Amino acid sequence: MSCALAVLPGNLVAEGTAVPDHIFSPTHGPPATQSLGQAASTAPGLPLCHILCVEDDEGQLQLLGRQTEAQVSGRAVVHLLRSGAVALQRLADLQRSGESIAMVLAGDVATSAQLGQWSQPGQRGLDFLTEVHRRLPQAAKVLLMTAASSEALGEAFSRGVAQAGLSHLLLKPVAEPQLRLMVESLLLTHALQHTQEQLVGTLREQQRELDVLNLNLESRIRERTMALEEANRRLSQLAVTDGLTGLYNHRYLQEHLILEVERSLRTGIPLGMLMIDVDHFRLYNNRFGHQTGDEVLRRVARLIGEHRRVNDVVARYGGEEFALLLINADHRVALRIAERLRARVCAEPFPETRDMPLGTLTISVGVASCPVDGTTAVGLIEAADAALFRAKHAGRNTVRVAGQVEMEASAQDSASDLRAITLS
């Protein structure tokens, strides 16, 4: 289907008389009315656009319309307008409707303010195109002039480029080959610009979608990273935590004890160690069951934790044995803490303890200190363990300090000598 050559209704104000524009369609015969936005079909893949031809000379306007319509052939709607004011209104209406305007061709046309005024050749058309350029800078602007001197034409074109973004200047009457080449070139340029704008719009939309995807991906990565870090933290914590009591386990104690012994030797600050064993626990566990025994171990762990200072470390050494590392604690300080802990456990009302050998649940504690009793982690453990062994053999529910075995032996010898003298 060929394009419709149309002029939409408008008014021309001249000498106080309203002169209506004509609706002209040489392709389809007699005049017919076409509403704003009604579009002719376009060639496949090309957008429908609009061309505004503005000229106050009726004959020139009709000739320009026929020549332009023959060239656009279904790719544009051509508007013939004899008034600058009506043309600007048409331009505004098309813009509001979102229509694409490819070019504006303007001859000797006046706006309402210029009616009856004399001007230089091409000046009124140039002023009109300047206003069009202000409103629609991307559309091509073509100035139509009557024959004039080369200087006048050059000056008009220079002003047009500077003021109105003028792309072409043609002399009236316009030669059809010249018009055909110009219209074809401008329509192709318009189509390319439209395609470029669509591509840019598509790329921007895709970029927005990509940005959203990236944000979502970054958010998910952050969430997964945080979850992974939390899982690793928990795994690391589980690797050094005793599952029953929640205290540090044997592995952590061994690793941490090495560091603390090295620090004690380097700084001269003593490191105390308590080895703690629940007395007769196997008997209790066998008599009342493992669940009751587990609850006892958890309560003993809690009581030991209550006696831990800020920098001290409590760990389950294994079975019913616990260890307490005391930072900056010599024999005197460690012994005081051990006695206080032993008395607290002895006073705790554990369930089902009346049949225990001592009538209640108790602990025995061995005390050692670095560097006095050992200068290595292994040596310190052996010293505390030996003191614990002596506490067990001393009747349980007692505290023994490493390095005091000679004193205890001397005391026992003195007691034996005293008994012998008494008997004799």
What would you note in describing this structure?
This protein has 424 residues and is α/β, with parallel strands linked by helices. The protein has eleven helices and 13 strands. The strands form three sheets. Strands 1-5-4-6-7-8 form a six-stranded parallel beta sheet, with helices on both faces. It has a five-stranded mixed beta sheet with strand order 10-11-9-12-13, with helices on both faces. Strands 2-3 form a two-stranded antiparallel sheet. Helix 3 runs parallel beside helix 4 (150-164) and helix 7 crosses helix 8 (290-306). It is rod-shaped, with a radius of gyration of 52 Å. The termini are far apart. Mean pLDDT is 82; it is low at 1-43, 114-118 and 413-424.
Shape: rod-shaped
Beta fraction: 15-25%
Number of strands: 13
Strand order of the largest sheet: 1-5-4-6-7-8
Protein structure class: alpha/beta
- Runs with pLDDT <50, length 5+? 1-43, 114-118, 413-424
> Radius of gyration, rounded?
52 Å
Into which percent range does the helicity of residues fall? Answer: 40-55%
**Mean pLDDT, nearest integer?**
82
Order of helices and strands: EEEEHEHEHEHEHHEHHEEHEHEH
Taking the alpha carbons of the first and last residues, their distance comes to: 144 Å
Helix tally? 11
Which sheet architecture does the biggest sheet show?
A: 6 strands, parallel
Topology at a glance:
Elements: E1 5-6, E2 11-14, E3 17-20, E4 49-54, H1 58-72, E5 76-81, H2 84-96, E6 101-106, H3 123-135, E7 140-145, H4 150-164, E8 166-171, H5 176-239, H6 250-267, E9 271-278, H7 281-288, H8 290-306, E10 313-318, E11 321-327, H9 331-347, E12 363-370, H10 377-393, E13 399-401, H11 405-423
Parallel strand pairs: 1-5, 4-5, 4-6, 6-7, 7-8, 12-13
Antiparallel strand pairs: 2-3, 9-11, 9-12, 10-11
